[in-house]
Amino acid sequence: MFVGCIDIGGTFTDLILYERGKGLEIMKSPTTPGEFERGFMDVLTLAAKSRGLSLTDFLAKLELLVHGTTVSTNALVEGKVATAGLICNAGHPDILTLREAPRKRAFLTKIDYPEPYIPRKFTCEVRGRIDSMGNEIDPLVEADVVAAAKHLETCNVAAVAVSLLWSIVNPKHELRVREILQNELPGIPVTLSHELNPVPREYRRTIATAINASLYPIVGAYVSQLDQALRAAGYKNELLIANCVGGMMPPDEIIARPIYSVMSGPTLAPIAAMHLTTDPNVIVVDMGGTTFDVSALRDRQLVVTPEATFGMDMLGIPKIDVRSVGAGGGSIAWVDAGGLIKVGPQSAAAKPGPACYGKGGTEATVTDANVVLGIIDPDYFLGGQMKLDRGRAVEAVERFARKVGLGTVEAAYAIYTTSNHNMIGAVEDITVNEGIDPRDSYLVSGGGATACHIGEMAQILGIKRFMIPSFAAGLSAYGGLISDVRWEEAATLHETHTDFDVERTNALIDRLRQRGRDFLDRAGFPRNRQRFEYAYQGRYLYQSWDIEVPFTLPGDRLGAGDFPRLAAAFHQMHERIYTIKDENDVVEFTTWKVRAVGDTGGADRRGVDLPRQVGLPAPKSRRKVYLGAKQGFVELPVYQGDKLGSGARIDGPALIEEPTTTILLLKGQTAVTDAHRNYLVELRV
User: Where in this chain does the record put each Acetophenone carboxylase-like C-terminal domain (predicted)?
Assistant: First the structure.
């Protein structure tokens, strides 16, 4: 019997398959933009053929299938979302226009002011008002809602977002608006802000509601089509979809809240890293065909950000903090107006792909450069399943070389090093720019292309220890394979650690926990496989910005003596993020969260133990690799990774070829395999 996870990337669709007694296996099939479900089924067909089974027979043996989708992410990036309408309070139609004046863009003075996510012509105001205490100041004018529905019907909207002031403390008006809309616009999905994102910040609550509404038809159609294709092919068991808070959800739940599928694939990489290492502080990198993603673990905790952005808009909901730059194997090299070499963010992606793929690409990419430099063997790409065309790679790099006045090999190396520095900048953004020294962290390298580059990146960053998992090319897919089902319930309740109502706070936590338990019950988890995690958002009194702080809840209830403990945890978190704290200041708690977790048994899904390596590993061949102007072409030993045993030691400079990745070790770097053939690399002293 099998368990599998499929992660759709920009170039390849990855399948990590776990079979009891035989461990893990990675398979890759080209991604099919515009028809992602076809690539999804293609990689399952590939897995069936590898075992001599028909697709139907293979699916009958598949106990569980989990999936990280890029459909919602691509829709946002490309602006191909469904047309949505917004209903808001009278006098407040500009919430999405004014935003929060994002701090990180304060000095971008030469850009046009961005349009609101939902245009004003699709924004309708309704009279009625709830105050901050939940009192009804003015009753809802239902005629305004009816008029709004008629206007939005003429606009042909596919979904409606409803975000009214202080619905988080009294949702009466929002609930009535939905009832009216369901009567006036039957079949049109409605998203209510207090149900989706119950936080006090109006812009964040409204933008999340707007994004969710615009994604509802797209994600719903994709997940439904995928589920139907699987059922038609004979799959009868459970399908789970990745979310952006580090877990999985049943299809019906992700269809109802599609915003939680945004960037869900990359958020699985730190989940995988948490299972691969015991280090407290970890940097996780993942270089695919289109992007390079960076995330981190701090004190064995996932880093959650409430300020994730897309373009000039926030996502509005908290998600695992993953920073992405356009630096993948398919990233295209070009020259700017000043004559400087640039790589990305434009990508050859899956179609047409790098020139060496022979599918019509003509621009020089990072993968083409690696072929020209000798790092990648064109005859052993994907373990020899896909042959690369070295001649086309050379032609593409030669055309680029003429633009910059370099030789072909020198131009390829310039592409290689420029890409490395782009990725180093992304690592520094999540470490140095956050006050963290990357040299104090362990590094886990994921992605099919990363191992070609990680040696030089580690040297420049001063990182002396890093890991390249044997399944690095499917790191995010592995994260999905071992992830639990996870959901989050939140609500607003203002308290301070010096003036609080224990019973009111406990009553709120009880309600959130019960809603989380209801979710897990619907997902089919017995009580002995359910657990709950707790967090709050807090700030110093009169401070503008909240931070999230996890806490434990012994006995399932807070006591009067727990609030000083929660405040102490806030001081520590504030110091970790901002390097300062004020233990004499009052801590204000604004939002309370309960995360419901259903145990899928993923922690036991790992590779089988390898036999110990006997003697020194012997290289299978030698290959000339260009290592820069000082060294030129150097003949390096090439080792076949899937033939190595546990405890094998390989000293750089050397190449290790796995079926789905190629590792370049530089001088002074030594790799030792562990029991699952993960490569533990250290700098020799």
Answer: 508-677
CA dist 21 and 632 (Å) reads 46
Q: Are 476 and 268 in contact (CB under 8 A)?
A: yes
CA distances from 160 to 78, 149, 166 (A): 21, 9, 19
Let me know: does 140 contact 177? Beta carbons within 8 Å.
Answer: yes
Q: Record the pTM.
A: 0.86
The tokens describing 144, both together, are 């305004």
Angle at the Cα of 207 from the Cα atoms of 202 and 208, rounded to 5 degrees: 105
Q: Residue 365 gets which letter from DSSP?
A: B
Task: For residue 36, count other CB atoms closer than 10 A to its CB.
Answer: 20
Residue 352, preceding peptide bond in cis (omega within 30° of 0): yes
Q: How far is CA 154 from the centre of its chain?
A: 37
Residue 605 is given by DSSP the state -
Lookup: tokens for 192: 């209510």
Structure tokens, 327: 């630096």
Residue ranges, comma separated, of all CATH 3.40.50 domains in the chain are 80-214
Q: What angle do CA 595, 599, 600 make, to 5 degrees?
A: 130
* Residue at token pair 């004046």: 101
Task: Name the burial class of residue 584, with classes exposed (0-12), middle (13-18) and buried (19+) by CB atoms within 10 angstroms of its CB.
Answer: exposed
b/e string for 135-155 if b means 16 or more Cβ within 10 A?
Answer: eeeeebebebbeebbeebeee
> Going by C-beta distance under 8 Å and a sequence separation of 6 or more, which residues neighbour residue 366?
327, 328, 329, 330, 331, 333, 343, 354, 415, 416, 419, 449
Q: Which run of H or E residues covers position 176?
A: helix 172-184
- Counting every residue written for the chain, the total comes to 685
Q: Within 10 Å of residue 398's Cβ, how many Cβ atoms?
A: 15
What is d(CA 679, CA 514) in angstroms, rounded to the nearest whole number? 44
Judged by DSSP in three states, 418 sits in helix
What is the rounded distance in angstroms from the CA atom of residue 17 to the CA atom of residue 23? 8
CA 356, 361, 362: angle at the middle one, nearest 5?
A: 90
Tokens of 283: 């940097």
Q: CATH assignment of 80-214?
A: 3.40.50
Q: How large a percentage of the chain has pLDDT more than 70?
A: 99
pLDDT tens-digit readout, 355-412: 999 988 899 999 999 999 999 999 998 888 889 999 999 999 999 999 999 999 999 9
Give the pLDDT band of residue 685 (cuts 50, 70, 90): low
